[in-house]
Amino acid sequence: MTLLLEQYMSLGGEIFYNHTFESFDQSNCEASFENNEKYTLSHLVACDGIRSSIREQFFTLNQQPRYSGYSAWRGIGKSNLQNIHFALGPGSHIVSYPINNEGDVSFVACTKEAYEFTESWKEEGSYNDLLDDFSIYDPKIFPVIEDSMKLYKWGIYIRPPLKSMIAHNLTLVGDAAHPMVPFLGQGACMAIEDAYAFGILCKITNCDFAKVQKTYDSIRSKRTKSIQRMSMMQGKIYHLKNPIMVAARNAVMRYTNVPGNDLKKIHQYDADEAIQVALFSEKHALGFSPADQD
Ligand SMILES: Cc1cc2nc3c(=O)[nH]c(=O)nc-3n(C[C@H](O)[C@H](O)[C@H](O)COP(=O)(O)OP(=O)(O)OC[C@H]3O[C@@H](n4cnc5c(N)ncnc54)[C@H](O)[C@@H]3O)c2cc1C
Predict the structure, then answer these.
(1) What band does 289 get if pLDDT is binned at 50, 70 and 90?
(2) Which of 17, 39, 47, 94 has most ligand 1 atoms within 8 Å of its beta carbon, as the pocket-test mutant?
(3) What is the Å distance from ligand 1's center to 245 Cα?
(4) pLDDT at 117
(5) How big is the CA angle at 227 (ends 224 and 228), to the nearest 5 degrees?
(6) Looking at residue 46, what is its pLDDT?
(7) Domains identified in the chain and CATH numbers
(8) Which ligand 1 atom sits nearest the alpha carbon of residue 20?
């Protein structure tokens, strides 16, 4: 958990706590915070999540996050489950997985429904409401929930893809740029890849932000848009209702490597290679020959 933090601090990174971002003066590249602190910056990288105020102000006016149509429950209970377990039903699915060797199992249970849960990580729900929402399943599918264990429910929100993740002296990273439905478990992974690509490009170009942004946008927009689309498609596949389609999906999942191979392709993405390819094609477009590539 602390790996990234420790590395960041060891490189001389700083964190300013109690700084709620307030506004950005783009012409002077000055960020203001609610505690009245102001900082003049070389560049602003905004990673302020799905409700990003930077996105709202500088990228897309009046385009608030909207309910995806999916709502989810999550909780942790006790079970002897050893591997990840999927249960798929018409219009819903449940994923459970062990999180340690002490029998703790986390589960996420998603339904597609018009009723809109609030978007919150803290909204608690009751075990009976959970069983009501998933009454088509055998209740034994859920790990054993003890009284002290909390159950949470929340609505899953999305925003349409952006044309570009950069604007003058601003760059968006993570959910601020590309929130997605969580059916491939890739939202935080994309935020980490974004941050990695931005950091490596700063290193390669010695913080020439115009160059960094151009390459960053070309690599990251394409990748994240495709994962946004695939995540949405995964939800549709999990929640199929038509019996023929359900039988076809189940056969593919049971008897072929297709789902595993699709996931492998996502996981095998090589951020360094993507950066090298993009830099090479930019050089090439400017008239450098392949021999010029370092
Ligand atoms: C149900 C569910 C399951 C998921 N499962 C997975 C999974 O298995 N794998 C995966 O990779 N991803 C998963 N995700 C997605 C993942 O949680 C997000 O994609 C990820 O947290 C995005 O990271 P972020 O840093 O961009 O934004 P966030 O994590 O939202 O962080 C944004 C930060 O900005 C801060 N902030 C906002 N406004 C201000 C302000 N004005 N001033 C100061 N700070 C501010 C917020 O307090 C917050 O700390 C899941 C999401 C959901 C909803």
Answers:
(1) very low
(2) 47
(3) 33
(4) 65
(5) 85
(6) 98
(7) 66-158 (3.30.9.30), 179-285 (no CATH)
(8) 42
| Tokens 């209702």 -> residue | 241
- Pairing status of strand 92-98 against strand 85-89: antiparallel
Distance CA 238, CA 90 (A): 8
Ligand 1 centre from 176 Cα, in Å?
Answer: 9
Ligand 1 atom closest to Cα of residue 188: 11
pTM of the model: 0.90
- Distance of alpha carbon 187 from the chain centroid: 1
Output the DSSP codes for 2-70. -HHHHHHHHTT-----S--EEEEETTTTEEEETTS-EEE-S-EEE---TT-HHHHHHT-TT---EEEEE
188 alpha carbon – ligand 1 mean position (Å): 7
Name, of 96-100, 120-124, 127-131, the range with top average pLDDT: 96-100
For the CA of 19, the closest atom of ligand 1 is 43
Q: If you average pLDDT over residues 163-168, what whole number do you get?
A: 95
Dist. CA 104–CA 111, nearest whole Å: 23
What is the 65 CA–ligand 1 centroid distance (Å)?
14
Q: Token pair of 113, please?
A: 């429904």
Give me the amino acid identity at 219: I
Residue having the nearest C-alpha atom to atom 38 of ligand 1: 48
Whether 183 contacts 231, CB under 8 Å: yes
Residue 181 has pLDDT above 50, yes or no: yes
Ligand 1 first shell, C-beta below 6 A = 20-21, 47-49, 53, 72, 108, 156, 174-176, 182, 185-189, 191
